[in-house]
Structures are given as structure tokens and as C-alpha cells.
TrEMBL record:
Residues 51-597 form the Myosin motor domain. ATP binds at G144, E145, S146, G147, A148, G149, K150, T151. It comes from Monilinia fructigena. PANTHER family: MYOSIN (PTHR13140), MYOSIN-11 (PTHR13140:SF857). This is Myosin motor domain-containing protein.
Length: 597
């Protein structure tokens, strides 16, 4: 039996009925059809006894067809976890399965992989045992395409570690460790509310990357946790693609907050369609209640020890961002270029900003761009402050946990291929490309070096080599790569998205097999390890800039609201009074998104 590639089902089984010329064969497929194919394009199929194999490393014929067939057979039986040697392959079931209960936790606790079925709990237990018994820090990498289930499996790892570590704590410390474990678990609803959103591929897509360090004492008790975050997709705050939503928190606030809170935030009687930053996307997610999610968020805030004042400060900035999006700008007169606020927007702007932002004239488009930049800046800084507050609650030693043993779990936005791919997708896919290269080097190249040291005959294969040309094309400063070219054009006064694209074509089109000009619009095609992706470059110059006005940031640093002032404390200047802030224009350091990361 052989496996043949099929455009509908990926692969079909068949057997050879005739050998033809030019290394071609005639194959009788099990769907009843006959196909003439190149003999080099078919894969051998394993005997039926290997169906639903727990570990694909045990397959006699290990090829793409046999891997897909085995995963498909297991998936049909609700077996979503499968080993592949050292790795665990997971397929998202897109439904709830009763395989994460305390009974399952006890089933995997202290057991070797050979004694149990493949499961994310088995991987977490192996990391925990290695930490406790060998004293070496551990890391679990959760990677895959958008919608593959990375965030959910990350939560299952944390669930397991919290349960097992608490069970191994001394009796006198169980209450303390139980509280800490609950706080670690309840950090997730907060992070998801502010950092996750619905995309076309995923109802709860993480729009940022995070590395969660769970700290342990030498005997295996939880000592604390720390969360690093990366690359929040702040452009989502002001601009949505079709069939998507903004960050969950906006909808949870509008749907779940009580009337008193809504009145405090000036959103009483208003809904999703009343705000520019939420009206263009979906209002709801099928099967998800924003009101229930709001209640879970408030509960998580309380478990984390956030005071009522802290919660109000955090949520007030969220409401402020919504109000910023509703500010409208018009020209003062037909003959004037200077913009002014529409009468109905003036009071709203005063509620949000409290003080005059500046006196320099600007056209409406410039003002709207500045407002969007302010909204993105407030939200991003607010998110960073939120993570800092969570870390402060989870650090029980007060020493930054530097000397503790830890298990790290890396969860980043997965590889994305949408109908329309933009700057955000390039950043995400570039990150995944780098991560895949590191993974290949660490898991394969180092293993091959071990073979060489042990004098095992082995043909050296550089599994990371094929990824380097694409990485270079994106990041190299010389010859100029995509990011460097974009940064360069962001400071050129007459540069446009079109001129940037044309420059890229002149630099790379037909000069590398990894790049080619888009055939249908303004953009380019880039070959990644996962697939070839077509990127539209419309709006890239604006997205790559970080053009928050210095006068505005210093004004916010001097805000009478302590939370807002703290968010922009790095922008304040000692000795400045409000008059000086309004009257002086300072040229700040211009940094693009690419340069910041």
C-alpha cells in the first residue's frame, strides 16, 4: 500500500497496478479511481496494526502520509495527543473533552511516559520531575499555527503544575501554596481579557507573546511566578479586519459592567455599535457570553488581590480609549487647513484628556492619526502595567525570584496566513521563523553533534539552514532587508507605502527564491518554513511608526489621575509645569515598531 497526495483529503491509499515509462506508475486508489503519478511522489503505508500508534517514532514507515493518517485515526477517536519521539503533537478538538480533571492529574502524577497515554499532563510531569530530581531549569515550548490550541494547552500545563506542586507541599504550607496556585491560574482570565481577541481563525487568539516562569523551591513547592510579554498587537485597538473583534475587555466592559460603573465611565446606555473602535467587527462570539467573561474577570481581579481602586483605574483607561475613538475632527473653514473638534466631540475630548493637547495647527487626517496613536499608546502601556501588577502579586519572595528553580512555558502568537496579511502577520511569522530555527538547532543539530561525539555514523543535516535566507531577507541591515527598508522609509518625508513596496521589489524581486512581487496588488510574496504568504503593504509606514506627540505624553505624565501619570512617568520632566509643557516642543527620539523589538 502507498499514500498519494490528494487536494481534498491530503492523502489517499492505493496500490500499484502497473509500472509505466519515465518512472511513472499507475495506482489503484481505495476511492475507486486510478491515477498515474511519479513513483517518487508516493509514500509507503504502515500495516493496520500501527493505526492509532501512541508514538509515531514507532512507525515502520515514517513519512508525511503515515503521519497524517495516524493523526487522523487518533483524532477520530478523540485522541488529540500523540507523541513523535521527544515531542508531543496536539490537534485542536474545537470542543471540550473530559480529560483535564483531577482524576487525570492523579493518573499522570509521577508516571513515566511509557506507563501512560500521550497527554499534555505527561509533558508537564516530566518537566516537573526533571526539575525536582535533577535541579535543572526546564522549558516547555508551545508552538503551532494560529488556532492550533497553544493558549489552552499552556493553561493545562499551568493547571497541572499548580496541582502537583501544591500536593507536594508540607501540610503547614498547603494553604499558602494553594492561594498562590490559585492566583497563578487566575492570572489567565486577566491576560486573556486584555491581550486576546477574536480573529478569523480563532475565537480566543493571543495577540501577544508570553513566557511564564513558574518558580519552585528545591523540594518542588511553588515559590511564585513571573510573566514576560512581547509584541502586543496594539494596532488592533484602532483598526479591525472583517469578521474579527477588538480585545475582549472592550466588549466585556460594555456588556457586563453594572449601571453605576458605566455611569462612572460615561458609557451608560452605549453599546458596541456606538464606538468607532468596536463597531466594525463582530459584536459577539458564538457560544461565549461577554457578561459571564466579565464576571470571571472581576473574580480574577479579586483573587489576584487587586483593590477596588486599582480595578477602577485600570478599567477607566479602557473606557478612555473607547471615547478617544469617537472624537471627530473637521476643518475650521473651507479655506483653512487647521482642524478643530466637532461641537459634540469637544466635551467628550475634555472628559478623556482634561487639558488642551496643543496649539499647533494640523489637518484632520493628522489629528486623527495622533488620536489613534494616543489610544494605542495608552492601551499598550496599560497592558504592560497590568502585567507588572500581576507579577508583583505573584512574587512572594520580593527578590525577583532570580535564585529560584523554574519551569518556563513559552506561548507566542502562532504562524498566520489570512485572506489578507499585513505588517502584524509579518512580525508574527518572522518571530515564528526565528523560533523554529532555534528549535531545529537545539533539538536536531545538537543531537547530531552528540552522535558525532559518540562516533555514530550519521550524515550531518543542517535543519536550520533552509530558514536562514528568509530570516536574512526580513532582518538584515546590509543588504537592506524588509524591516531596515521600512525603517528607512519611515523617516523619508515623501515616502509612501507604494514607494516602499517598489523599493523592496528593486532590492529583492528575482534575486532570491524566497521573495517575489505580488501579482494581484500592492505587496509581495514571502516563502516561510510553513508556507508562502502574500503580504499587502498598505498602511505599513503608519503601522511601523510610533508617533506619539511629546507634548501629549508629558501632559499625561502630569495627569491628576495617579494611574495615568504612572503609565507615562518615563515621559515626565522634573521642574515642568503645565504651562511649560504646553508651550515647549521637544523633539523626542523617534523609534519605529521594528526598532523597539
Amino acid at each position: 500500500m502507498f499514500g498519494l497526495k490528494d487536494p481534498q483529503t491530503a492523502f489517499v491509499k492505493g496500490w500499484i497496478v502497473e509500472e509505466l515509462e519515465n518512472n511513472h506508475i499507475l495506482v489503484q486508489c481505495d476511492d475507486g479511481s486510478q491515477r498515474e503519478v511519479d513513483a517518487e511522489t508516493v509514500d509507503k503505508v504502515n500495516p493496520a496494526k500501527f493505526d492509532k500508534a501512541n508514538d509515531m517514532a514507532e512507525l515502520t514507515h515514517l513519512n508525511e502520509a503515515s503521519v497524517v493518517h495516524n493523526l487522523h485515526m487518533r483524532y477520530q477517536a478523540d485522541l488529540i495527543y500523540t507523541y513523535s519521539g521527544l515531542f508531543l503533537v496536539t490537534i485542536n478538538p474545537y470542543c471540550s473533552l473530559p480529560i483535564y480533571t483531577n482524576e487525570y492529574i492523579n493518573m499522570y502524577k509521577g508516571q513515566s511516559r511509557e506507563e501512560t497515554k500521550p497527554h499534555i499532563f505527561a509533558m508537564a510531569d516530566e518537566a516537573f520531575r526533571n526539575l525536582v530530581e535533577e535541579g535543572e531549569n526546564q522549558s516547555i515550548l508551545v508552538t503551532g499555527e494560529s488556532g492550533a490550541g497553544k493558549t489552552e494547552n499552556t493553561k493545562k500545563v499551568i493547571q497541572y503544575l499548580a496541582a502537583v506542586a501544591n500536593s507536594e507541599s508540607p501540610v503547614k504550607n498547603k494553604l499558602q501554596h494553594s492561594t498562590l496556585s490559585q492566583q497563578i491560574l487566575r492570572a489567565n482570565p486577566i491576560l486573556e481579557a486584555f491581550g486576546n481577541a477574536q480573529t478569523v481563525r480563532n475565537h480566543n487568539s493571543s495577540r501577544f507573546g508570553k513566557f511564564i516562569r513558574i518558580e519552585f523551591t528545591r523540594n518542588g513547592s511553588i515559590a511564585g511566578a513571573f510573566i514576560d510579554w512581547y509584541l502586543l498587537e496594539k494596532s488592533r485597538v484602532v483598526r479591525l479586519n472583517a469578521h474579527e473583534r477588538n480585545y475582549h475587555i472592550f466588549y466585556q466592559l460594555l456588556k457586563g459592567a453594572d449601571p453605576t460603573l458605566k455611569q462612572e465611565f460615561l458609557i451608560e446606555g452605549l453599546d458596541v455599535e456606538d464606538f468607532a473602535y468596536t463597531r466594525d467587527g463582530h459584536d459577539t462570539i458564538v457560544g461565549v457570553s461577554d457578561r459571564d467573561e466579565w464576571n470571571s474577570l472581576v473574580e480574577a481581579f479579586n483573587v489576584m488581590g487587586f483593590s477596588e481602586d486599582n480595578q477602577m483605574s485600570i478599567l477607566r483607561t479602557v473606557a478612555a480609549v473607547l471615547h478617544l475613538g469617537n472624537i471627530t475632527v473637521v476643518k475650521e473653514s473651507r479655506s483653512a487647513d487647521q482642524a478643530r473638534l466637532a461641537p459634540e466631540a469637544r466635551a467628550q475630548a475634555e472628559r478623556v484628556c482634561w487639558k488642551r493637547m496643543g496649539r499647533k495647527g494640523a489637518d484632520p487626517e493628522q489629528v486623527l492619526l495622533a488620536i489613534d496613536s494616543l489610544a494605542k499608546g495608552i492601551y499598550e502601556r496599560g497592558f504592560g502595567d497590568l502585567v507588572t501588577r500581576i507579577n508583583r502579586q505573584l512574587d512572594r519572595t520580593g527578590m525577583g525570584l532570580d535564585d529560584s528553580h523554574f519551569i518556563g512555558v513559552l506561548d507566542i502568537a502562532g504562524f498566520e496566513i489570512f485572506e489578507e496579511n499585513s505588517f502584524e502577520q509579518l512580525c508574527i511569522n518572522y518571530t515564528n521563523e526565528k523560533l523554529q530555527q532555534f528549535f531545529n538547532h537545539h533539538m536536531f543539530v545538537l543531537e547530531q553533534e552528540e552522535y558525532a561525539r559518540e562516533k555514530i555514523e550519521w550524515k550531518f543535516i543542517d535543519f536550520g539552514h533552509d530558514l536562514q535566507p528568509t530570516i536574512d531577507l526580513i532582518e538584515l541591515p546590509n543588504p537592506i532587508g524588509i524591516f531596515s527598508c521600512l525603517d528607512e522609509d519611515c523617516v523619508m518625508p515623501k515616502a509612501t507605502d507604494k514607494s516602499f513596496t517598489e523599493k523592496l521589489h528593486s532590492l529583492w524581486d528575482r534575486k532570491t527564491p524566497k521573495y517575489r512581487a505580488s501579482r494581484l496588488g500592492q505587496g509581495f510574496m514571502l516563502t516561510h518554513y510553513a508556507a508562502e504568504v502574500e503580504y499587502s503593504t498598505e498602511g505599513w509606514l503608519e503601522k511601523n511608526k510610533d508617533p506619539m506627540n511629546d507634548n501629549i505624553t508629558r501632559l499625561l505624565a502630569a495627569s491628576s489621575d495617579p494611574h495615568v501619570a504612572n503609565l507615562f512617568s518615563d515621559c515626565s520632566e522634573a521642574g515642568d509645569d503645565s504651562g511649560a509643557i504646553r508651550s515647549r516642543v521637544k523633539k523626542g527620539l523617534f523609534r519605529t515598531v521594528a526598532q523597539r523589538h
